Amino acid sequence: MEGRLLSLILLTPLAGVLLLLLTPGGNRRLIKLMANLAGVAGFLVTIPLMMNFKAGTRGYQFTERLPWIPSLGVEYALGVDGISLLLVALTALAGALAILCSWGAVEERLKEFYALLLLQQAGMMGVFLATDFFLFYFCWELVLIPMYFIIGMWGGERRLYAAIKFVLYTVLGSVLMLLGILALYWQHFQQTGIYSFDIVKLMQVTLPPGTEHWIFWAFFIGFAIKVPMFPFHTWLPDAHVEAPTAGSVILAAVLLKMGTYGFVRFSLPLLPNASADRTVVRVIAVLSLIAILYGALVSLMQKDWKRLVAYSSVSHMGFCTLGIFALNHAGIAGSALQQVNHGISTSMLFLLVGIIYERRHTREIAQYGGLAHAMPGFAKVFAFAVFSSAGLPLLNGFIGEFTILQGVFAANRTWAAFAVMGVVLGAAYLLWLYQRTMLGAVTREENRGVADLTPREWLTFLPLMAWALWIGLYPKPFFDVLDAPVRAILERVAVR
Amino acid sequence: MVDAGMVWLALLFPLLGAAALLAVGRRLPKLVIAGIACGAVAASFAVAVAAREARGEAILGPWLPLVQADWGLLADPLSVRMMLIITGIGTLIHLYAAVYMAGDGGYYRFFGYMNLFVFFMLLLVLANNYALLFAGWEGVGLASYLLIGYYFDRPAAGAAAIKAFLTNRVGDAAFLLGMFLLYSLTGTLRFTALTGTEAVPGLGLATLLLLAGACGKSAQFPLHVWLPDAMEGPTPVSALIHAATMVTAGVYLLARSSLLFALTPESALIAAWIGAMTAFLGATVAVVQTDIKRLLAWSTVSQLGFMFMAAGAGAHQAALFHLTTHAFFKALLFLGAGSVIHALHGEQDLRKMGGLARRMPATFFTMFVGAAALAGVPGFAGFFSKDEILHALFESSGPLFITGLVAAILTALYSTRLVRMVFGGPPAEERELHQPPRLMTAILAVLAGGSFVAGWAGMGRFHMAIAMASVVCVAVGWLLGRRSLDLDGPLYEPFRRHWYIDELYQRWIVQGLARRGGAWLSRFDAGAVDGAVNATGAMGRVAGAFSAWWDAAVVDGIVRNCGFLIKDLSYPVRLIQTGQVQTYGIMILAGVILLTSYLVFGGRL
Fold first, then answer.
1. Both ends of chain B: CA-CA distance in Å?
2. Interface confidence (ipTM) of the complex
3. Within a 10 A sphere around the Cβ of B605, how many other Cβ atoms?
4. Which of A133, A362, A440, B405 is the most exposed place for a label (fewest CB within 10 A)?
């Protein structure tokens, strides 16, 4: 099994899809059980990976390689390093929780719903595990289709608009990225005479500066839309608001990370000269800073609970992109860790909105107030999520933000001074949301008898809370895992 | 005796207490809850007493590897002194609260937060590096947020809690930058490793940024606005967090960074002047307060200003001395105020009090001691610590000294006013009193003892001339306080409106930047940014519609027209397609004849 562990991780969700297709359609409980079984199995198979991963080792581990389309040099090639390891863990957990949280929320077309979630999980795993650019692109696009259906079929009122906007926007980015990939592929062929999509081999290409720049910008658009960076972010609030909770959790926890992962995995090591170009760095830093402050201010004034959380993602992901383009160890390691942190905190925030929406069927903040009276357990978890997201020390968010800011400060003090304002505003919109929904007297009768968290709902939060505390209290293992890959990236990208 | 390696025990008890209370406290009887909470802090106090001679560092494990910040604790005279104050006064206030809060429904929650606070406060003072100190720093901010907003039914409490947290966060943002700068200059955040630091360019900015952080936590101008509002929390909270311990964290930070400030005299001078402004500003506003807790809060702002003045002037020992005496007498005054409020069924308005001296003699006596200590009456604790501060100011700068004297006069003035309005004269309203339980009064007595003894115990060299000046100040303040109680005149308008600072922040930052800016950006986002996306989409649809028309009308038109053309052209041919076998027979026959004729005669024609 050892030699095929990554394939096992990749294929377990697909086995789950098969399992679901073989389950009789009439038995709803059985379908839900099977889906959860597949979700948990998908998580469990990543545990041997965590246990046996060797921190401090350079290069990819657990590599697998099989020819796929030999005539084009396409391979089924998998591997993990520290950066992808963390995202694989996040995907496995978020995938399982997305299935668990849908137990009471989704009642129509169960089989299709869960099958799509699992299919998507396989796609996301593929994105983080692929070391072949073609396979990566294949999985990148594979992720898109289930999400289109999940938003479009199980979403809210404006689900079609949101789903189409999401798909078109992302496809636009993907197409540009594909052009970039093909350009690299072609350059590699011209220089070596070999067709290959292997990331490591493509790194050996020497590109003319002009070519490198335009490939960089092609990649940039593809990744920036996914992150999403300002000004490409407006698909996000619509997609989040309309998506069912499971969709929002996956979107926030994993899909957005595909963009930042792309920067770290491809843009920096493959296009080091363009990535370290002064103008390029300045443009991206400024866009990131705008995202941090603008996202926070826009978040502050949202009337819709879920939309507020969606805009907070824009702000938080701004920290991640800023950290990456600080182009130093703290910046990139902090960014990689903050991607996990954002996944944890924002998943919690979306799960919470989903729970309250199931009970009250509204997301309008003004409809709430004093919920802490009826839902003390919910209020506690919400407070935890708020402080985790706002970067309170000894919780996960702080570790990421602190490290990113440390890196950014080393790169450029002015950026750090602006970014640190995002820390203040981040607390502002979250605490104000908390005050308006949870605190105060109960002003509406409907909010009086709202049921508190059920044991199943507690179960969705506990692993996230435990992980948040772990990172907050003892982040060393995470930094250890990130050390070697970040060093490897920095050896390619020397600041100039 | 406990050595540095065991100091972590002091952290453990309140942490376990908080965890137990917040997890299962809801189901426990009140006596057990109070037992756990008070026991935890008392156990910490026992550790602190046993560790009072402990010196050294203990590394428990790694925390932030990229700045080499560990879970490390440092025991030295400064941290041990803070630990004793926090756990000692903390135990007394916990005991008081056990009685004071007995009627409250959220008893377990209250004590859970209180223990959490003690944990973070101890982490703050025991941390061996700035990063871990910062964790405690933000942690006490969290506990303060939770406790200010404890009565979460009241909108004012929620608003005050947010205001406190966010104002502190502004300072904390600067603190963060200061840490990064310090790290980039020295390569370490560990206190013991920073002792050999030399004056490098940029160190001044680093200390200024740390100072900004200290201003947030210790409610110094211009970040002082949150402390008076924080009085929305329960009174024991005001005593513990917003008087005796948390708000002194800024003074602690300055003392902890004293070597760095010694290298950057400009920053130290700025600290002193911030303290001077705050001491004056806080005292002027305290003079016109009509709410007993707010008067004490503004007084705290002002007294913290004194400590900053001393720290800025380099007299860290004087600052810490005042910190210690202030912890006693201000905790006493708050708890005494709590007893008065309790007795008057929740009344906090000074104008509705009066005449309580005879009816609550024990409270009167103890609070009198507290007020005397605050005013600086000779013999009481505040006299000695203020004397040292004024002496340090006298040595360092004339204007600072004068400001200190003016603030001292005002301190005596509002202290006199406080005692007179609560206890003197005839009662403003006749009502039945709720006599405070004996335990509460006993705790006041202990603190009153502290407010007397702490001065004599901590006294250093006595400065006669300064003492005379300060006695004159007290006398002047006392006379002024006796004379006029009517402070409604226009002269006092800036005092009543807190020098307009709150209004300024409200208008420009809260309403202007955050609300209006946020609203404008939201519209911009929906209109311009998303508008551009939707316009692109709409353009796509227009292009699509045009293509559809083009395809249907032109491209398919050509195809269809070709069809029609052929159809039209084929019209004559259709005429002969009659479907009758006979016709076809004739035509075949004709064809055969024609073909045959051609074949036969064709060659020759």
1. 141
2. 0.92
3. 6
4. A362
Report which residue type is found at A462. Answer: L
Strands (E), A288-394: none
Any CB–CB contact under 8 A between B180 and chain A?
A: yes
Tokens of A312: 């907070």
Nearest to A405 among B138, B170, B180 (CB): B180
Phi and psi (nearest 5°) for A62?
55, 35
Give the long-range contacts of residues A310-314, CB within 8 A, separation 24 or more. Answer: A310/A236, A310/A237, A310/A240, A310/A241, A310/A252, A311/A237, A312/A346, A312/A349, A312/A389, A312/A426, A312/A429, A312/A430, A313/A236, A313/A240, A313/A252, A313/A256, A313/A342, A313/A346, A314/A228, A314/A230, A314/A233, A314/A236
End-to-end CA gap in chain A: 45
Task: Read off the tokens for A432.
Answer: 């104000």
Tokens matching residue B603:
């060659």
**B16 in contact with chain A, both atoms CB, cutoff 8 A:** no
My answer on whether omega of the bond before A237 falls inside 30° of 0, hence cis, is no
Give the tens place of pLDDT for each residue, A108-143.
888 899 999 999 999 999 999 999 999 999 999 999
Q: Are A479 and A337 in contact (CB under 8 A)?
A: yes
Q: Which amino acid is at B102?
A: A
Tell me the pairing of strands A61-69 and A74-80: antiparallel
Q: How many residues does chain A have?
A: 496
Query: Do A476 and B62 lie within an 8 Å CB cutoff?
Result: yes
Q: How many CB atoms lie within 10 A of CB B378?
A: 14
Under DSSP, is residue B336 helix (H, G, I), strand (E, B) or coil? helix
Record: contact B518-A301, CB cut-off 8 A: yes
List the Cα angle B116/B117/B123 in 5-degree steps: 95
B180 and A387: CB-CB below 8 Å?
no
